[in-house]
Amino acid sequence: MHPNRLKLIAVMIIFSVSSFAAAPRRDDAPVGKQSIMLALLLDTSNSMDGLIDQAKSQLWKIVNELAAARCDDQSRPSIKIALYEYGNSGLPATLGYIRQVSPLTNDLDLISEKLFALRTNGGNEYCGQVIKTSLDELEWSTSGADLKLIFIAGNEPFTQGEVPYRVACSLAKEKDVVVNTIYCGPYSEGAESDWKSGATITGGTYMSIEQDRKTVYIPTPYDDKIEALNSKLNDTYVYYGASGSRKKEAQAAQDYNAESYGKSNAAERAVSKSSPVYNNSSWDLVDASKDDAKVIEKAREEELPKEMKGMSIQQRKDFVAAKSAERKSIQKEIQDLSVKRQQFIDANTTKEEKEAMLDAAMMRSIKEKAKTKKMSFEK
Asked: What percent of the chain has pLDDT over 70?
């Protein structure tokens, strides 16, 4: 595989959802009964560093745009993302060189952590088998109201491996899972090697990308302010539980990882953290208490931050309430700035760049699929 041929596959994956809307707005809309489930199947065979690099740098764009999703009753769908790698010779041949990196989860820091840990290495790419594996292993909803999507990226023939892609894609169709395929190379070449056929079976979208297209990052006058607000936002997280301290450290680590791709990407992550999609109720008392107020009094003192040790139950509640109010205020500031930031980016991005970053056919396709589930996206 040529290393440059796969540089933008992940851009295609992420932006396939990212053009749903402009910057998301923080609000109090409740999470409804519907879900959006998205599985990313990334080729990590040799010379795929460009793919992984783009996935790392584009993750928070997909989060921001998914945060704009609304159900027919204006509630928010729950969002879950899964990650697979395939085609890596460091993985067991008996499993088809396939590994579930993360199951379907709403733990976005975990997805980021797993992405940054991916490494490329040789291998055979079995598209049919990785699709079937993800269908068999993941806890896909059985509700016809949920939007279920697979995005698979690569540039070898779609026909490789013992599991025929037609069998795997037919199984996906039975489960109401839409398979979208992204071929890195000439459109006709991907079509001839059955990438287009794989998508067509489920009513998904096939696309190809040019090998030398690079992501364009637009610095804005709002990035520094958002960065400062992000630091304040982190101070509102109050960990609890056996893994609470470690998860708060992981949050900071993913901030660092995002910033390693520049202030623009760090700003994208901060905007994500100000949206309803970014929820850490498994380790943060502010988020957890929204679902179960009793979690504050149930938390074991030895598993709380030092500033909460020795507090009475009422003092705990007051402390968490103050942090909650502070967070809400900071998130609103970030969201307000994110609107201005997006307007600046739009005004300084050429039509050619906008169209090259993914677009038209893919966006129309995904939006149409969302409409079948009576979902819409804020603008």
From this structure: 85
